[in-house]
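PROTEIN DESIGN WORKSHEET
SECTION A - STRUCTURE
LENGTH: 257
C-ALPHA COORDINATES:
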Protein backbone atom coordinates (compact mmCIF):
# COMPACT_ATOMS: atom_id res chain seq x y z
CA UNK A 1 0.00 0.00 0.00
CA UNK A 2 1.43 3.40 -0.99
CA UNK A 3 0.68 6.52 0.99
CA UNK A 4 -0.45 9.83 -0.57
CA UNK A 5 2.33 12.37 -1.09
CA UNK A 6 0.54 14.87 1.16
CA UNK A 7 0.60 12.42 4.07
CA UNK A 8 4.26 11.62 3.47
CA UNK A 9 5.17 15.32 3.50
CA UNK A 10 3.20 15.89 6.69
CA UNK A 11 5.03 13.08 8.47
CA UNK A 12 8.33 14.46 7.18
CA UNK A 13 7.54 17.95 8.41
CA UNK A 14 6.51 16.78 11.86
CA UNK A 15 9.62 14.67 12.18
CA UNK A 16 11.89 17.43 10.98
CA UNK A 17 10.73 19.75 13.75
CA UNK A 18 11.19 17.20 16.54
CA UNK A 19 14.41 15.26 15.78
CA UNK A 20 13.97 13.18 18.93
CA UNK A 21 15.87 10.26 20.40
CA UNK A 22 19.04 10.39 18.33
CA UNK A 23 22.03 8.60 19.82
CA UNK A 24 25.52 9.93 19.18
CA UNK A 25 28.88 10.51 20.85
CA UNK A 26 29.82 13.50 22.94
CA UNK A 27 33.19 15.27 22.91
CA UNK A 28 35.01 14.95 26.22
CA UNK A 29 35.72 18.67 26.60
CA UNK A 30 32.09 19.68 26.08
CA UNK A 31 30.28 21.90 28.56
CA UNK A 32 27.06 20.16 29.65
CA UNK A 33 24.74 22.66 31.25
CA UNK A 34 22.29 21.95 34.09
CA UNK A 35 20.15 24.80 35.41
CA UNK A 36 22.40 27.40 33.81
CA UNK A 37 25.63 25.95 35.24
CA UNK A 38 28.16 23.38 34.14
CA UNK A 39 26.57 20.30 35.64
CA UNK A 40 28.14 17.24 34.00
CA UNK A 41 31.31 15.97 32.44
CA UNK A 42 31.53 12.92 30.19
CA UNK A 43 34.60 11.19 28.90
CA UNK A 44 35.35 11.51 25.21
CA UNK A 45 33.16 9.37 22.88
CA UNK A 46 30.51 8.65 25.51
CA UNK A 47 27.25 7.90 23.69
CA UNK A 48 24.13 9.86 24.62
CA UNK A 49 20.60 10.46 23.39
CA UNK A 50 20.07 13.95 21.97
CA UNK A 51 16.94 15.99 21.39
CA UNK A 52 16.99 19.25 19.39
CA UNK A 53 15.37 22.19 21.20
CA UNK A 54 13.70 25.23 19.70
CA UNK A 55 16.68 27.42 20.65
CA UNK A 56 19.01 25.30 18.50
CA UNK A 57 20.72 23.61 21.42
CA UNK A 58 20.40 19.92 22.27
CA UNK A 59 19.13 18.30 25.44
CA UNK A 60 21.13 15.13 26.01
CA UNK A 61 20.25 12.18 28.20
CA UNK A 62 22.32 9.24 29.33
CA UNK A 63 21.65 6.09 31.37
CA UNK A 64 24.11 5.97 34.27
CA UNK A 65 24.87 3.89 37.33
CA UNK A 66 25.58 5.91 40.46
CA UNK A 67 26.89 4.73 43.85
CA UNK A 68 23.79 4.41 46.02
CA UNK A 69 25.25 6.44 48.88
CA UNK A 70 25.74 9.42 46.53
CA UNK A 71 21.99 9.67 45.75
CA UNK A 72 19.53 11.20 48.21
CA UNK A 73 15.89 12.00 47.38
CA UNK A 74 16.62 11.58 43.67
CA UNK A 75 19.56 14.03 43.68
CA UNK A 76 23.17 13.06 42.90
CA UNK A 77 25.84 14.71 45.02
CA UNK A 78 28.53 16.88 43.35
CA UNK A 79 31.77 15.23 42.19
CA UNK A 80 30.11 11.81 41.95
CA UNK A 81 31.54 9.33 39.41
CA UNK A 82 29.10 7.99 36.81
CA UNK A 83 29.37 4.47 35.39
CA UNK A 84 28.01 2.52 32.41
CA UNK A 85 26.51 -0.97 32.51
CA UNK A 86 30.02 -2.49 32.29
CA UNK A 87 31.06 -0.72 35.52
CA UNK A 88 33.34 1.59 33.53
CA UNK A 89 33.58 5.20 34.70
CA UNK A 90 32.23 7.47 31.93
CA UNK A 91 31.98 10.83 33.66
CA UNK A 92 31.09 12.73 36.81
CA UNK A 93 28.73 15.32 38.20
CA UNK A 94 30.06 18.82 38.78
CA UNK A 95 27.11 20.07 40.84
CA UNK A 96 24.08 18.40 42.42
CA UNK A 97 21.79 17.19 39.64
CA UNK A 98 18.65 15.01 39.45
CA UNK A 99 18.75 11.30 38.67
CA UNK A 100 15.53 10.68 36.74
CA UNK A 101 13.63 7.37 36.78
CA UNK A 102 15.96 6.13 39.51
CA UNK A 103 15.75 2.51 40.62
CA UNK A 104 18.08 -0.03 42.28
CA UNK A 105 20.52 -1.59 39.82
CA UNK A 106 20.13 -5.30 39.06
CA UNK A 107 23.35 -5.51 37.03
CA UNK A 108 25.97 -7.88 38.47
CA UNK A 109 28.88 -5.87 39.82
CA UNK A 110 26.69 -2.78 40.20
CA UNK A 111 24.21 -3.95 42.82
CA UNK A 112 25.34 -1.23 45.23
CA UNK A 113 24.41 1.36 42.60
CA UNK A 114 21.28 3.15 41.49
CA UNK A 115 20.44 3.34 37.78
CA UNK A 116 18.66 6.25 36.12
CA UNK A 117 19.09 9.10 33.67
CA UNK A 118 21.11 12.28 33.87
CA UNK A 119 20.50 15.09 31.41
CA UNK A 120 21.85 18.46 30.37
CA UNK A 121 22.07 20.94 27.51
CA UNK A 122 24.86 21.25 24.92
CA UNK A 123 25.58 23.05 21.66
CA UNK A 124 25.77 21.19 18.35
CA UNK A 125 29.59 21.40 18.46
CA UNK A 126 29.55 19.03 21.47
CA UNK A 127 28.99 16.02 19.21
CA UNK A 128 31.71 14.15 17.41
CA UNK A 129 31.67 14.31 13.62
CA UNK A 130 29.98 11.37 11.89
CA UNK A 131 28.56 10.02 15.15
CA UNK A 132 24.88 10.14 14.10
CA UNK A 133 23.98 6.57 12.99
CA UNK A 134 21.02 7.74 10.90
CA UNK A 135 23.06 10.24 8.90
CA UNK A 136 25.97 7.85 8.59
CA UNK A 137 23.67 5.22 7.07
CA UNK A 138 22.35 7.69 4.51
CA UNK A 139 25.94 8.65 3.62
CA UNK A 140 26.95 4.99 3.36
CA UNK A 141 24.24 4.36 0.77
CA UNK A 142 24.81 7.66 -1.07
CA UNK A 143 28.58 7.67 -1.58
CA UNK A 144 30.62 5.75 -4.13
CA UNK A 145 32.83 3.05 -2.63
CA UNK A 146 36.37 2.23 -3.75
CA UNK A 147 36.08 -1.36 -2.55
CA UNK A 148 33.25 -3.83 -1.98
CA UNK A 149 30.11 -2.47 -0.30
CA UNK A 150 30.26 -5.36 2.15
CA UNK A 151 33.46 -3.98 3.69
CA UNK A 152 32.00 -0.50 4.20
CA UNK A 153 28.74 -2.01 5.51
CA UNK A 154 30.51 -4.20 8.07
CA UNK A 155 32.62 -1.24 9.22
CA UNK A 156 29.45 0.80 9.73
CA UNK A 157 27.76 -1.98 11.74
CA UNK A 158 30.78 -2.38 13.99
CA UNK A 159 31.23 1.36 14.51
CA UNK A 160 27.73 1.83 15.92
CA UNK A 161 27.54 -1.54 17.72
CA UNK A 162 24.62 -3.01 15.79
CA UNK A 163 23.10 -6.23 17.11
CA UNK A 164 22.41 -9.17 14.79
CA UNK A 165 18.96 -10.71 15.25
CA UNK A 166 19.22 -14.53 15.44
CA UNK A 167 17.20 -16.52 12.93
CA UNK A 168 15.16 -18.04 15.78
CA UNK A 169 13.80 -14.56 16.60
CA UNK A 170 12.82 -13.69 13.03
CA UNK A 171 9.08 -14.11 12.25
CA UNK A 172 8.21 -16.92 9.81
CA UNK A 173 6.79 -14.37 7.35
CA UNK A 174 10.12 -12.54 7.18
CA UNK A 175 12.13 -15.76 7.01
CA UNK A 176 9.96 -16.87 4.07
CA UNK A 177 10.96 -13.73 2.14
CA UNK A 178 14.41 -15.15 1.48
CA UNK A 179 17.85 -15.65 3.02
CA UNK A 180 17.95 -12.33 4.86
CA UNK A 181 20.00 -10.89 7.71
CA UNK A 182 18.39 -8.57 10.26
CA UNK A 183 20.20 -6.01 12.37
CA UNK A 184 18.95 -3.75 15.16
CA UNK A 185 20.36 -0.61 16.77
CA UNK A 186 18.89 0.06 20.20
CA UNK A 187 18.69 3.24 22.24
CA UNK A 188 19.45 2.39 25.88
CA UNK A 189 19.33 6.05 26.90
CA UNK A 190 15.67 6.59 26.05
CA UNK A 191 13.97 4.27 28.56
CA UNK A 192 15.07 1.75 31.19
CA UNK A 193 13.31 -1.07 29.34
CA UNK A 194 15.16 -4.33 28.81
CA UNK A 195 15.72 -4.76 25.98
CA UNK A 196 16.04 -1.09 25.13
CA UNK A 197 13.72 0.36 22.44
CA UNK A 198 14.93 0.16 18.87
CA UNK A 199 16.38 3.08 16.94
CA UNK A 200 16.93 1.51 13.53
CA UNK A 201 16.34 -1.91 11.99
CA UNK A 202 18.13 -3.10 8.84
CA UNK A 203 17.29 -6.01 6.58
CA UNK A 204 20.05 -7.07 4.20
CA UNK A 205 20.60 -9.76 1.61
CA UNK A 206 23.86 -11.17 2.86
CA UNK A 207 26.32 -8.30 3.28
CA UNK A 208 26.01 -7.01 -0.26
CA UNK A 209 22.68 -5.15 -0.43
CA UNK A 210 20.11 -3.56 1.83
CA UNK A 211 16.51 -4.69 1.41
CA UNK A 212 14.76 -2.47 3.96
CA UNK A 213 15.36 0.02 6.77
CA UNK A 214 12.96 0.82 9.60
CA UNK A 215 13.49 4.11 11.42
CA UNK A 216 11.80 4.70 14.77
CA UNK A 217 11.00 8.23 13.65
CA UNK A 218 10.38 9.89 10.30
CA UNK A 219 11.67 9.16 6.78
CA UNK A 220 15.35 9.25 5.85
CA UNK A 221 16.68 10.55 2.53
CA UNK A 222 18.00 7.35 1.01
CA UNK A 223 18.94 7.22 -2.68
CA UNK A 224 17.07 4.88 -5.02
CA UNK A 225 14.31 4.20 -2.52
CA UNK A 226 11.27 2.45 -3.99
CA UNK A 227 8.67 2.81 -1.28
CA UNK A 228 8.25 4.50 2.11
CA UNK A 229 5.52 3.46 4.56
CA UNK A 230 4.98 5.65 7.65
CA UNK A 231 3.32 3.45 10.29
CA UNK A 232 2.78 3.78 14.04
CA UNK A 233 5.68 1.41 14.73
CA UNK A 234 8.12 3.40 12.60
CA UNK A 235 8.92 4.49 9.05
CA UNK A 236 9.58 1.60 6.66
CA UNK A 237 11.94 2.17 3.71
CA UNK A 238 12.08 -0.44 0.94
CA UNK A 239 14.79 -0.52 -1.74
CA UNK A 240 12.64 -2.69 -4.02
CA UNK A 241 8.93 -3.32 -4.06
CA UNK A 242 8.31 -5.50 -0.99
CA UNK A 243 6.45 -8.77 -1.13
CA UNK A 244 3.57 -9.22 1.28
CA UNK A 245 5.63 -11.76 3.21
CA UNK A 246 8.52 -9.31 3.62
CA UNK A 247 6.32 -6.39 4.65
CA UNK A 248 4.20 -8.42 7.09
CA UNK A 249 7.22 -10.11 8.63
CA UNK A 250 9.15 -6.87 9.09
CA UNK A 251 6.16 -5.19 10.73
CA UNK A 252 5.76 -8.15 13.13
CA UNK A 253 9.44 -7.99 14.02
CA UNK A 254 9.34 -4.23 14.58
CA UNK A 255 6.23 -4.32 16.75
CA UNK A 256 8.03 -6.78 19.01
CA UNK A 257 10.90 -4.38 19.71
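SECTION B - SEQUENCE
RESIDUE ASSIGNMENT:
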Amino acid sequence: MKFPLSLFLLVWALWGTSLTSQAQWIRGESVIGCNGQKGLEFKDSTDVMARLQEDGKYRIQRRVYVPRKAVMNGIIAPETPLFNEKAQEIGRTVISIPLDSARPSQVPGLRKHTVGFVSGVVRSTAFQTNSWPDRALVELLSEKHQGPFSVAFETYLQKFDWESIPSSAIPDELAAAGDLKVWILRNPHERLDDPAPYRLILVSRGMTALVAVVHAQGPLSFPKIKEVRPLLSGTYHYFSKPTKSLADGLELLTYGQ
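SECTION C - NOTES
Confidence is low (pLDDT under 50) at residues 1-21.
The longest strand covers residues 58-67.
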